[in-house]
Amino acid sequence: MSSMTALKLFRNQLIRNVWRFRSTGQSSYKLRQSIVPLSSSVPIRNFAANPNVDDSVNDQNPTAEKLEFQAETRMLLDIVAKSLYSEKEVFIRELISNASDALEKLRYVSLKAGESHDLGSLDINITTDKTNRKLIIQDTGIGMTREELISNLGTIAKSGSKAFLQNIQQSESTNLSSIIGQFGVGFYSCFMVADRVEVFTKSVNPHATGYLWKSDGTNEYEIIESDNIERGTKIVMYLKQDCREYASEDTVRSVINKYSNFVNSPIKLNGSEINTIQPLWLLNPKSVSKEQHDEFYKFVANTYDRPRFVLHYSAEAPIQVRALLYFPELAPGQTDFYDSSTKGVSLYTRRILVKKEAENVLPKWLRFVKGVIDSEDIPLNLSREMLQNSSLLRKLNQLLTSKIVKFLHDKSVKDLDEYMKFYQDYGVFIKEGVVTNDDPKEREELAGLLRYESSYTKPGETTSFEDYIKRRQEGQNDIYYLSAPNRALAESSPYIEALKKKNVEVIYCYEQHDEIILYQVKTFKNVKLTLVEKEINTANNQSSQTVELGTDSLSQLQLDSLLPWIESVLGNKVKKVKITGQLESHPCVITVDDMTAARHFIKTQLKQMDEEMLFSVLQPQLELNPKHAVIKKLLTLKESNPELAKLIIEQLYSNSMVTAGLINDSRKLVSNMNRVLELVVEKY
Fold first, then answer.
1. φ, ψ for residue 485 (rounded to 5)?
2. 15 vs 8: CA distance, rounded Å
3. In terms of DSSP bridges, do strands 478-483 and 527-531 run parallel, antiparallel, or are they unpaired?
4. Residue 194 and residue 213: Cα distance in Å, rounded?
5. How far, in Å, CA of 479 to CA of 405, rounded?
6. Is 565 in contact with 638 (CB distance < 8 Å)?
7. Residue 665: is it exposed, middle or buried by C-beta count within 10 angstroms (0-12/13-18/19+)?
């Protein structure tokens, strides 16, 4: 078996076992047995050391103990060091997380023991040495005994932090939320960049002995008793030639700012504290000023504008989460509409950045939202770069989405002017959310944020479905809407004449996608959304045999002569020609069974079929107003001037198709119209 094949096999075995034992809750001991007795991995979260101690230790020290890695362990080390992480720089994040955990453990142990004496400086010190290609990360935390050193650095996927928390939970209900460790391979990420690593550590226990653990990550590691080591841990990395940039202060500062700015302890880089930005999402919302929000927004969003709205939110159930979300003041750019990735929020766990541009934490339609989401309940994979539990992620997504929708709804009620400014800029994203949401309840909640003009509102003013329902007529069971390019065409549409006569309000949709959106909504608070073209078709079907023919309209005998003639002129362009009582000032309209689907079909499929096939699919019906002057004139004109009568019928049909939105290109109607004009002017 080649080394590469073996490496892949062991990598797959490691991942399978971690998933299996994490999901079934079996002990880490069984996990270690199922893989092999491995070599080293607990988050080195328990370490710290004397910054003044000499890094070099005599290899001939009589207390030195050499332990040999097994071949399988070496392969697993290769996986961690070479394959597990997508970015080498995360080793700094991992080691700082370990150091932060060590400090938190020390605080807890000290409080539990009732110790009141000064613990000294509890911080993380980082030193870069460009000349010697060295990077040193040091904490003054809880440190380790020899047994803890062997246990924690002797087995991959044996997490010291996880075991520490389990210990606490078994003895009492204390919540130590600052312990970050989950799997314990983070320490070995340093072998991605280092040829050799030395770990100096000394436990906080009284009379503890100091130790040096060192390895080049190949065949063996060594543990040596060492003097002059104070409480805590110091990790010295001798960097590889091609990783020498991590001995640069600027590089390290950049990585810390990216991942570890908000850990609970001071981080000092070459003596200067650099994590000075407060994690605002952990503070009481009432204690955070507008100026603080402005500055923090610029930091997390990498922008120069200010937040329009701020949502500062926390919850303990059904999932623990703390979120600080910002709605940008600037309108979105053109590329923002087409970028479907959700990269506006950063995902943290206990102040440590897990993912700068976290996918799936919020739905794609909320990709304009910026900010921070911190959750202790989200389990992470070995490298913390991929979320393990999709059900928890879905819960987090649903919880935050519901909160954002409620926040925007409250904003629309309490500050309508500000909400409408936001809606004008970002309303298209809300509409996207309506269309892409498969849950009817969530879709309806989003629909409550939509705003449209209507026959009730003044030009430029909008209404919500909720307000529409409050104003509906007695006995009205539908919310009616009409698709039209603008208000003028909407108000002159033949399809709303009957509704206007009854003083029924109609929503106006000016954008082509709005019709699809409302078609998708279907109902709002148990009230059906109905396209007016469908309403007129339904009304005609219900009253097809009872259209009243007054003295100002054609008689039934005249209609029995006219309607078959019109059908013969139009041929297969129509399924049927009939009369309607739903029109007042217009001569005719076109109806189809599903106008929304028909219009969408025309826009997407017209180029792929000829006219005859199109009409066979649409099966339009031409419905005539028997009181209209043009329709009445056709009765005599078909006898006195058949050519003109046929041209008028063709033109009426084409006009109705255009009004219905079933003809994309109206230029082909011009020749027919010109011929009608020629015949008309011949008499003068």
1. -65, -30
2. 11
3. parallel
4. 15
5. 22
6. yes
7. exposed
What pLDDT is stored for residue 277 in this prediction?
86
By the 8 A CB rule, do 191 and 90 touch? no
What's the rounded Cα separation, in Å, for the pair 371 and 365?
15
Three-class secondary structure assignment of 143-190? CCCHHHHHHHCCCCCCCHHHHHHHHHHHHCCCCCCCCCCCCCCHHHHH
Q: Which residue has the tokens 């006898």?
A: 639
Which of helix, strand or coil describes residue 452?
A: strand
Per-residue model confidence as pLDDT tens digits over 68-121:
765 555 665 666 666 666 788 989 998 998 999 899 999 888 887 776 556 788
Distance CA 411, CA 418 (A): 8
The closest alpha carbon to 199, from 328, 317, 42, 332, belongs to: 42
In three-state secondary structure terms, 299 is helix
Phi, psi of 567 (to 5 degrees): -60, -35
Q: Please state, in angstroms and rounded to a whole number, the distance separating the CA atoms of residues 593 and 612.
A: 18
d(CA 423, CA 449): 9
Residue 137 corresponds to which tokens in the numbers above? 């990360």
The conformation of residue 250, written as its DSSP 8-state character, comes to: H
**What's the CA gap between 476 and 265, in Å, rounded?**
64
532, burial (CB in 10 Å: exposed 0-12, middle 13-18, buried 19+): buried
- 3-class DSSP assignment, residue 629: helix
pLDDT digits (tens, 9 = 90+) for 183-240: 456 787 888 899 999 999 999 988 899 999 998 887 788 999 998 898 999 999 999 9
In whole angstroms, what is the distance from residue 620 CA to residue 613 CA? 12
HSE on the CB side for 244, CA within 13 Å?
A: 6
- The answer to whether 464 touches 451, Cβ cutoff 8 Å, is yes
User: 43 near 187, Cβ under 8 Å?
Assistant: yes
- The residue type found at 189 is S
Helices and strands in the chain, H and E counts: 23, 22
Q: How far apart are alpha carbons 441 and 443 in whole angstroms?
A: 5
CA neighbours within 13 Å on the CB side: how many for 111?
Answer: 8
Nearest Cα to 243, choosing from 138, 137, 134? 134
> Which residues, given as ranges, of the chain have pLDDT below 70?
1-63, 69-85, 115-118, 154-185, 334-335, 337-343, 379-390, 539-546, 606-607, 684
**Length of the chain in terms of residues written:** 684
